[in-house]
Amino acid sequence: ERLLRKEMELEERERELALQTKRLKNQGPKPYNFPPLWPVMYHNIDEEITDSNRVLVRNIFRSWLFTLGTLLLNSTSCFLILIAHAVGVNTGATDFGVGLVYTIFVGMASFFLWYRPVYNAFMKEKALYYYLFFVFNGFHIGFQFYMLAGIPGSGSGGLINMISMISDGKILAGVFCIITSALWACGGTLSLFLYNKVYSHYKLQGHTFNEAKS
């Protein structure tokens, strides 16, 4: 009975995907709409993702937006570390510079290396896109917990830098570092949860590594 139920669910998803693909082909090329200020691609979860997967993909998109917000706040925290001149902390300039680089590079790289692949994976149901997501989102999760640590000179306003700021009475920098640390922790946990959701869907669809290689 359990196997029969899974087969029925798989058949239903295949029908949804076939209808979605047919509708997209009939619509023809679409005008670029993302990002809003400088469109370079078409992005529409409601139109391009099947009903059964729409909530998950939308949550993954929100997790990417959450990453952007965390990177921006992290850069602000690093700037406050720089101007705080806490005793024993001489890596403020490095933290701020690296934090800015992360904001630009990680923000763009995360979109093209793991968000767009998983978007395409759910849109086209091709194993290769899932593997791209698993690899690069795995690195991204590791990066989030690395940033949580807040090692001086790493470009992070995480835990270690937070302790240094609070210990020296730099309240404003300390508060921003507390918030930044919380966001890195929440972001990493959310990413792990969504990663597991995508992997469960991947297994349910019966994709394999050999399929990805071909």
Automatic annotation (TrEMBL):
Keyword Transmembrane helix belongs to the record: yes
Protein name: Scamp-domain-containing protein
InterPro entries per the UniProt record, alphabetical: SCAMP
TM annotation in the entry: 64-84, 96-115, 127-151, 171-195
Coarse class of the protein's main subcellular location: membrane
Source organism (scientific name): Basidiobolus meristosporus CBS 931.73
Keyword Membrane: yes
Upper lineage: Eukaryota, Fungi, Fungi incertae sedis, Zoopagomycota, Entomophthoromycotina
Protein keywords: Membrane, Transmembrane, Transmembrane helix
Membrane topology (UniProt): Multi-pass membrane protein
Chain segments annotated as coiled-coil in the UniProt record: none
